[in-house]
Amino acid sequence: MQKRVIFPNKILPYALLAPQIAITVLFFFLPAGQAIWQSLLMQDAFGLRVEFVWFENFARILKDPNYLAAIKTTVVFSSAVTVLAMAPALLLALMADRQIRAADTFKTLIVWPYAVAPAVAAVLWLFMFHPSIGVVGQLLIQMGVKWNYALDGNQAMLLVILASAWKQVSYNFLFFLAGLQSIPKSILEAASIDGASARTRFWTVIFPLLSPTTFFLLVVNVVYAFFDTFGTIDALTKGGPGTSTVTLIYRVYVDGNNNLNFGASAAQSVILMAVVIALTAVQFRYIERKVHY
Amino acid sequence: MIFRRSLFAATAAVALIASAGLAQAQQAQAQQAQAQQKVQIDFWHGLTQPLGGLLEQIAADFSASQPRFQINATFRGAYPETMVSSIAAFRAGNAPHIVQMFEVGTATMMAARGAIIPVHELLRTTGVAIDFNDYIPAVRGYYALPNGNQMSMPFNSSTTIMFYNKDAFRKAGLNPEQAPRTWAEMRQATAALKASGHACPFTTAWPTWAQFEQFSALHNVPLASAQNGMEGMNAELRINSPLHVRHLTTLVDMAKDNTFRYGGRDGAGDALFASGECAIIHASSGFRARALREVPGGAANVGAAMLPFYDDVAGAPNQTIIGGASFWVLNGGPGRVRSADEQRGIAEFFAYLARPEVAAKWHTDTGFLPVTRAAFARVQATDFYRQNPGADVPVQQMLRGASTENTRGLRLGNMPEIRVVIQEEIERAFQGQQTPQQALDNAVRRGNEILRNFERANRS
Amino acid sequence: MSTEAVGRTSTAGNWLAYAILTLGVVVFAFPIWMAFVGSTWDAATIGRGDLPLYPGDLFWENYAQAWSSGEGTRVRGTPVGVMMLNSLVMALAIALGKIAISILSAYAVVYFSFPGRMLAFWMIFVTLMLPVEVRIVPTYQVVVDLGLFDSYAGLIVPLIASATATLLFRQFFLTIPDELVEAAKIDGAGPLRFFWDVVLPLSRTNIAALFVILFIYGWNQYLWPMLITRSKGLETIVIGITKMIGTGDAQNDWNLIMATTILAMLPPVLVVVFMQRWFVKGLVDSEK
Fold first, then answer.
1. How far apart are the CA of B119 and the nearest CA of chain C, in angstroms?
2. Any alpha helices (H) in chain C, and if so which ranges?
3. Under CATH, what is the fold of the domain C78-285?
4. Looking at chain A, which residue has its C-alpha nearest residue B77?
């Protein structure tokens, strides 16, 4: 997607891109290239004994039934997190964008949770949902719910989904709000003079104008759910019970960081990246067509 | 206008933080400047506060006690993060001189010849002497070769013991000064607790460590072949033996009749005892301080006892093994050997750690084991154990029975991963998705695959 | 403000808005309330799970202790002020750096046609897909090789590349009407002039939103700063907090952890509050 009207300069665009590309190449492509090379190696933790094994790491992973189960878990997890992170954020942004008293206070209070340090956020979730020391956990048990996510796979899944989505709502809220505020007021006025109902106005005027923001957030949230949630899972369930909350990125993280199995971890990263790049390309190719610029 | 005003306010706020920060920074720098002249030794550790601060204090005390060496102790995240960051640093030629590594990383470190300087070699080169014979056998053995050569410096060590809630015992008509000794007594006591209305009679922290690793040592049976891996990398797990299956069956049965509750992985179960919800827990001896502070009723209400055993098993009860961490000496990177000065400094620091007064103080300050007999005797000579009843239970448990090939420790590659696999499989058993026998068969099969991968990656 | 006339206001609608927003605040800010409440009780109450929903009476003790030592009862460490300062430098540099390089590269991708345009965009974009945590060992190596270990540069520069920001600006630039470019061209304005006079002012709301997000992102970085620094003088506040949360046998001083957490949240919250004003300004401007 590109503008119809553009500037003809031949050198300037490269100059504008240079800083970003330089940093990306240096701190991303160089290390990532090494990671891909590692995916073909088998080695000890310190890199003292290295053996080139072709695609053996890949073969082993793809044969592992737990890996295939993790794919399923990841699909469920990522779609739930994306929806639960975006929908409430949009609703709250629409409400906060109204001309109401104390709107600024509400905005601050809703954005605030994003500032909680991730290490502490996970602890706070434990303090809320732990079956015996958590406020919400105790409440659930008093209400007769058999709440014990240490042994109930579905509850564990629900917990990591909610915690991961919660972290992202503030983020989405802020960008939806920015998107809403950059909609020209003249368009909204015209729509309201036409006498359209609030709901019609939202779906026919606001939502299409918000679609560039929504598309941006969709891409970012999918990527977030796939790649940036291992910390939350590690803090809350460590992938358990059984392997019911092990997602693909969590495995990459555990194999690389805890198990020091750099070959296996790198091979999984390569698979995961390939899948998500494909997924993102599909989003750009098909969903972006519906985006109204 | 609004923008400018808010910018001004923001600047003012920033300036406020900055000036407060700078004032504190100057103080900190002044302290550092004095230390620059000495041989600098980097020491990365994985202990959070307050333990990490106490450890850094020991390093600071050592640095102040002599003019030549400066130990710079820094926190590097929890143990796994410390391990990864020192490995990354080693690969980049930037490794710390000393790194603290948890006990389950021992096999990985030991296999890394060329990256580590074994402690026995360090001592031989530098001529510094440490009497490892005075160390508690299970502490020393975990970090030594079968021939007795010490590979890393033992430091913070703990073991698993049993804690119980005395109030709960009284309410259930049990003697609050008499903890269950055997699993048969455990069943009776937990049944009584349940009958008295206690929702959670018994739980465990560190399920793999407490119920499999310690359990095996306590009953003097192997966790894995080849002397728990000490004899070579070809070890295979042995945890689907009839005794292990029997024990998991006991736990699953108790979970079914609500006398046992699975509290989650690693240390997650601790919270169940701290809140007063569970009456008995098998937990790390290091849990004691937290229990005394948090359990309703405080110190008077917390009992400590040795782990229960099956009394029909010959050889039980034997001594338990340790957990915790030891200090490893690293070279700077591939081909970057430490200088004689640096090695000397490291060796002297280790000798300082082995001093009875230092080891004894660490024990009484933190609740970790006294690692040497001299340190233990030193503390026994004070009235510490009279004022802190139960604080000597871990040591007594470590010194009970005989040191055998099943109690010297574990040397299994990728042990953290194996622990997770065992937890995954027993969780499936507690959920009723498989029988105890199936769970342990699966754990053995998956664990052995992990061991074979390690063997292959580390074959020289 | 003339927006009142827009017709987005109706009494019933407002009540609904209040209800939804209040619910939202309760759900999303509840954990922060818990952290605050926790910072006013003693450690044992929190640890055993008896924390009530209302504040206790240890506010001053806990906060004084958190500020003066930041490290619990028995130990000394890097002062909180120093850690806050480091966090501030890092967060500001990361946020401003990311915005600067991303807005330039997005501008290049949207407003120019040149060989390698899509390649450049995708090169930037894929950086989203391998977080630092899973490529630690090789990234560390690069930083050490460049001599950036244990420096502000090593702390900041590797975190400045931002696919998110580039994507956001791309999305936004695509919505700027083409007529503006045509008008600028007729006026004889070059690309840089157009960028400065038109694109930058129009992007203000998005920059403000992004600044908030990126500032907090930088502020909350934990693994990278810990890995890449050695001097205590470079420690950040989030490392300070993490140091206090024991994962194994440690007894945690939850009251001080919570108090430090609240202290650590203040600068990001101030940023949010100030940026709110910018939002309003953007709104007024676009009505001209």
1. 25
2. 11-38, 43-47, 59-68, 80-111, 117-125, 136-145, 152-156, 163-175, 178-186, 191-194, 200-202, 204-219, 223-228, 237-244, 254-285
3. MetI-like fold (1.10.3720)
4. A119
